[in-house]
Amino acid sequence: EVQLVESGGDSVQAGGSLRLSCTASGFTFADSDMTWYRQAPGNECELVSRLYRDGTSFYADSVKGRFTVSQDNAKNTRYLQMNSLQPEDTAAYYCAAYPPPGFGGSWSAATPCRGQGTQVTVFS
Questions:
Q1: Which residues make beta-bridge pairs with 67?
Q2: Hey, how many other C-beta atoms are within 10 angstroms of the C-beta on 42?
Q3: Can you spell out the DSSP letters for 19-67?
Q4: pLDDT tier at 102 (50, 70, 90 boundaries)?
Q5: Dihedral through CA 99, CA 52, CA 3, CA 27, nearest 10?
Q6: Distance between CA 11 and CA 94 in Å, rounded?
Q7: CA 29 to each of CA 7, 32, 33: distance values in angstroms, whole numbers, following the listed order
Q8: pLDDT (0 to 100) of residue 47
Q9: Can you say whether the dihedral through the CA atoms of 99, 1, 46, 18 is positive or negative?
Q10: Burial class (CB in 10 A: 0-12, 13-18, 19+), 120
Q11: Would the pLDDT of 78 be above 90?
């Protein structure tokens, strides 16, 4: 079964840092593109960052220079390092991944802002 599990959310003071984890099962993360999303109450789901399987990355303007994506293939996990956190970063954070080339099974991990997510709260 294809599954993603987010973790690492917490409450931090503005200016602080957190590292979120997204651990995959049922497929090899290194073979997939993945996206971090976030959603604050009353707001739409927002794309935060994307890490492509070729190692390139994309960041929303709101987090560029503060957030960094990385991966640990041995742990089948991707990370979102968040520095200089601000109250406007408060949201539930989710990861999503896309089927690797040639994947022939059922895929349920690509929907934005779906799943358990992990809550990040930044207070001033």
A1: 82
A2: 5
A3: EEEEEEESS-GGGS-EEEEEE-TTS--EEEEEE-TTS-EEE-TTTTTTE
A4: confident
A5: 60
A6: 16
A7: 16, 5, 8
A8: 98
A9: negative
A10: buried
A11: yes
Q: Please determine, for residue 81, whether its predicted confidence score (pLDDT) is greater than 90.
A: yes
pLDDT given for residue 17 in this prediction: 98
Give the up-direction half-sphere exposure of residue 105: CA atoms within 13 A in the CB hemisphere.
9
* Separation CA 67–CA 16 (nearest Å): 12
- On the question of pLDDT at 103 being above 90, the answer is no
Please name the helix (run of DSSP H) or strand (run of DSSP E) that holds residue 79, with its range, or none: strand 77-82
Q: How far is CA 34 from the centre of its chain?
A: 8
Cα angle vertex 69, ends 67, 71, to 5°?
155
Count the Cβ atoms, other than its own, within 10 Å of residue 35: 21
Sheet holding 77-82, edge to edge: 3-7, 18-25, 77-82, 67-72
Q: How far apart are CA 96 and CA 117, in angstroms?
A: 10
Over residues 19-28, the mean pLDDT reads: 95
